[in-house]
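[Q] Does anyone have a clean structure-token version of this?
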Amino acid sequence: MVKSIDAIVATILSLLTLFLIFFTFTKAKRSRFDGKLPRFLFHTNLGKGILLLLSLWILSSSLIYISERCFCQGDDLNNSSFRTLPRSLVGMLYPATVFYGMEQGTPSSFVGQLIAALTSLGYLLVGTLFIGAALLDKLRQSWRKKMKINWEDHFVVCGWNENMEKILTQLTNPALGDEKRPIAVLVREEEVEDVQNIIERLDAQQQIKTVSGSLVSENDLKNAGVQNAKGVLILPPAGDNNPELAVLFCALSIKKMKDESDKKLPQIITYIEDNDFANKLSHIADTVITPTETDVLLSATALLYPDTVEIYRRLMTISEETNEIYLVKVPTPWTEKKLSFYELAEIITKKNRTESPVTLIGLKRNKKIYINPKDDDIGYIKEDDKLIVIAMNYPMKRLEKMATGD
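[A] Here you go.
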């Protein structure tokens, strides 16, 4: 009866460890975990090494016990040090060696010996590859903490979000043209590998750098080059006990740097889901994005016009195959002519190239947005105005050619 129970347990353990190994190297890479222990086990080399060593131990112990039961008979089975599952587990802590002064010996069956030999090799490989990689990670972590970004007018993304890949894809798209800038990503050490995987998929090693550190550390923010950046996007860190507070303190740290510096420090963009914190952030950040409000407004509009959602998605997706909304400077020749918005829209429409047209839809003056404004509301186009246009790619060069008559 005991042997039958051992066999059932060994079979179940073998299947579970096989599933765990498969999950660790496939699904776990793309999964996000809230707890510190799961993040450590599935997203760090040291954690994966420990997990794999435990899996190898349990799997090999179960398989050797099953092979002894299947291929050994009589005295061979009775004399085997692996004749029960508990003995097999003790024996495979280190195959064919003395363990706590007790000679475990080797499996009696050839299949068991083969599994033990392969497991010994597996222990060595896992220890070398994963534990060695973990030591290299520690060295890289120390280097990243000392590393300082020396870029200027770049973008900084602070904090991890499950949409990080979409965000970085948008910011590195060729359709941005001259507006494409280097990006520094400030995340916790356990999330660096995830960001590096995204960078490799985007083939953007020269354009994106990761800095490990805390969102609320002024030192780490300076290492990411916040003081020289054009804009900072702050995301609530996944798995944090108080992600809203992390965003708030990060924004406060950057605001403090702004107040203490004579330089024009970056625009602060925050993404947050808590409306109460959104109200607090609105006094600190330049722009606060709350998905709840956006979703509600879009849902109501979609009820009136169902295609609105698809139109909105296409306009917000930066790609060389779709049209996007851009804010661009007004070319100097047009400001000198003192054109009205209607006159400028007419000039752009007449000079448009049919293969890649530019459509003028609005104007930004100071901090106010005008969409299709009346001439009485804004008067003439001014030098500091920004044009709001829809175009396939960043349209500044085309608008300059239009303005000079080319």
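[Q] Thanks! Anything notable?
[A] Confidence is low (pLDDT under 50) at residues 96-102.
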